[in-house]
Amino acid sequence: MASSKKKCIIIGAGYAGLAAARTLVGEGGDRLEVVVLEAGHRVGGRAHTESLGQCGYAEFGATWLHGVVNHPVYEAALRLKYMDGTEKERAGMQWGTSQYVLEGAAAALEGADALAAAKAAPANGGGGGGSSAVPAAAGSIGTFVRQRFQQLDLAARGNVACDAWAWRERLQRAIDGCHTTDDMNAASMAEYHELPGPNIPLPCGYQAVAEHFAEGLDIRFGQRVERVRYDAHGVHVTVAGGAELAADAVIVTVSLGVLKAEHEHMFSPPLPPCKASAIAALAMGCVDKLFIEFGAAVGPAQASCCAVMWITGADAVAMEAATDEEVCRGVQGVLDAFPAISLAGRPFRVRRTRWGADPLFRGSYSYCPAGARAADMDALAAPVVSGPSPNPGPGGAAGGQAAPPRVLFAGEATHRSYFGTVHGAYFSGQREARRLLAAFGVHSGAHVLSSIGSA
Ligand SMILES: Cc1cc2nc3c(=O)[nH]c(=O)nc-3n(C[C@H](O)[C@H](O)[C@H](O)COP(=O)(O)OP(=O)(O)OC[C@H]3O[C@@H](n4cnc5c(N)ncnc54)[C@H](O)[C@@H]3O)c2cc1C
After folding, report:
1. What CA–CA distance (Å, rounded) separates 331 from 75?
2. DSSP state of 227
3. In whole angstroms, what is the distance from residue 290 CA to residue 322 CA?
């Protein structure tokens, strides 16, 4: 007898895919069969923690919890006792300006920081972040902040102020994931929200929580999905090597970068025009990290240690294309520029990320560039429904009822308020899982795996 269970395939085991799978299994119970197909060989996607030997663990991708209230990863870290939630823990790790500065540069940096952190206000002047709010009509973040920076009388402070702005511009690129701040749509700042609470790192590493979220799920590694065929009856997913799986629906969580490169060949029939234009309009930035492991030098105070450099935009693209020797020469150049740092002169080796060139990601995180609209994120998130319900009547959808969605989309780029973040990815996976549960009329109320956080 054929199984009456609804079958769902999830493409990708990043935080969006894990959240979708946990929600389906946790809230759909044994009325669903849920399979996660992951092209790589680990869970976590762009949240990737690696060991750096004696230097401990390093975050190759996501690093910060952007706010902690209702953050699903923070809540899991507390439950798992990776963190204790104390004020001391929060206060000791927050980011700030002063730790970076040269003598005399603090005021310039703080001025630049305050402006760059300003929130966009709608064009009619409402909302936003107070006196320095960015009007949505400003166009790009770069234009607005540069103009305000010039008004700050920082020019009188000379080179330090100019260096401060150059540094702040690079930091802004890393925060927004944009290629340049001139390409960052000011209106999208009004859409982006942080969770309440401080920005703090996760001492256990994002990977550990991802592995916890993956427990009990049917995740198949090394399964790169090449084709998704869908119609009113269901979906057929083909993986590299030719194996095919059939299901009632698929939740696609691959990055916007992967969709840009592959959607035209991946989906049959092709995605509707509004979805294809949203994929084209939204952008994927390139943010990379270089980890510099210094070997132990002679003397008791000089154990092995590690430094990290962030590199963004066109510089990151160039770094990814460079040879190892060229990268080491570049790092040496930076070290030589700071002779007062005692690390100069010590042997080192470099490990680097290549999020832009990696075919499983094709970028670091999404943003809304000049020319795109926040509504493009909604279009990206919209499910694809194919044709009328094939089996109206008992056991199927009632005659005349809307056909169930067949191809659903989650992932950080589909979250209009929390795009570019791990919690945005998580909430988007939860959102699509619940959309599917509602469409299938499946809601057991069972919470086999506790579902954490809310959208
Ligand atoms: C350098 C860097 C720093 C960051 N810093 C932060 C931060 O501090 N805080 C924060 O909240 N966020 C940060 N982010 C962003 C955050 O990591 C992402 O927003 C989030 O992890 C995205 O999750 P996702 O599930 O949407 O996508 P992904 O993590 O990209 O997951 C998609 C999965 O799909 C798989 N896949 C791709 N193609 C296929 C295919 N054809 N078939 C099967 N599987 C496929 C991939 O291998 C991947 O595992 C950072 C990202 C980077 C790169």
Report:
1. 37
2. E
3. 13
421 in contact with ligand 1, CB cutoff 6 A:
yes
Structure confidence by residue, pLDDT tens digits, 171-185: 777 777 788 888 888
Q: Distance, CA 438 to ligand 1 centroid (Å)?
A: 26
- Helix, strand, coil: what percent of the chain each, to 5? 40, 20, 40
- The CA 413 to ligand 1 mean position distance, Å, reads 10
**251 vs 25: CA distance, rounded Å:** 14
H-helix segments, 126-205: 141-151, 159-176, 186-191
Any ligand 1 atom below 6 A from CB of 21: no
Q: Domains in the chain and their CATH numbers? A: 6-45+204-283+367-440 (3.50.50.60), 98-197 (no CATH), 287-354 (no CATH)
Instruction: Please state, as a whole number, how many other Cβ atoms lie within 10 Å of the Cβ of residue 305.
Output: 17
At 284-335, the pLDDT tens digits run: 999 999 999 887 655 555 666 788 999 998 999 999 999 999 999 999 888 8
Counting from 1 in the atom list of ligand 1, the atom nearest the Cα of 355 is 53
How far is the centre of ligand 1, averaged over its atoms, from the C-alpha of 8 (Å)?
A: 21
Give the Å distance between the CA of 96 and the centre of ligand 1.
25
Cβ of 257 less than 6 Å from ligand 1: no
- Residue 342, φ and ψ in degrees, nearest 5: -70, -10
Kindly report the pTM of this predicted structure.
0.89
